[in-house]
Design goal:
With 203 residues, the chain is of the alpha/beta class. It has helices at 42-53, 62-70, 76-80, 82-89, 114-122, 135-143; strands at residues 2-10, 57-61, 92-95, 107-110, 128-132, 149-155, 175-182, 188-194.
Amino acid sequence: MKLTTMTQVTVDGVMQGNGGASEEERRNGFERGGWAMGAGDNETRTFITQAYQRADAFLFGRRTYDIFADSWGAIEEMRAHPIGVALNETPKYVASTTLTEARWVGTTVLSGDLVTVIGELKAKPAGELQVHGSGNLVRWLLQNALVDEITLLIVPVVLGQGTRLFPNNGPDIALDLVDSRADSKGVTIQVYRPAGRPRYATG
């Protein structure tokens, strides 16, 4: 399976608190939650929905899993939405060292040597293994060269605080641009494929 990530980020790369001001999204003194609410036009919303619908499996970090389980997995209105239907009907995996039993039907908890376990999932024929949100997991996947495609939905706002998708000190990755579009509200969608390491000036 192809492992893909989809992340909403600000222009300055922040991914924290896109959906609101929950206790989880306020961690580390973050006070600017909800910056992605109302962002994107109908075409962008359709793009996101269709992405969820083509997934053959979903992979989550623990925090995002809990948020999704309590919303898409539990609230009837959200369960009935096409994204909710896709999430509830498709196999889900959560990478966690603390979770022992999954409460969302259709979930398998991954533990142990995650490089090997996720590599085995990726080795399955065809299909798409999607990661949504899950910043810590995405950073780890990138560090271990397990990501095949990155989709960034960039909301036209600068926050100046919050957890960023890419760390200050992390792996360097060259990217090939696969697709790029801008919607009527200024949200841009950039799809990249990792292409080894960047080239640097010499001498």
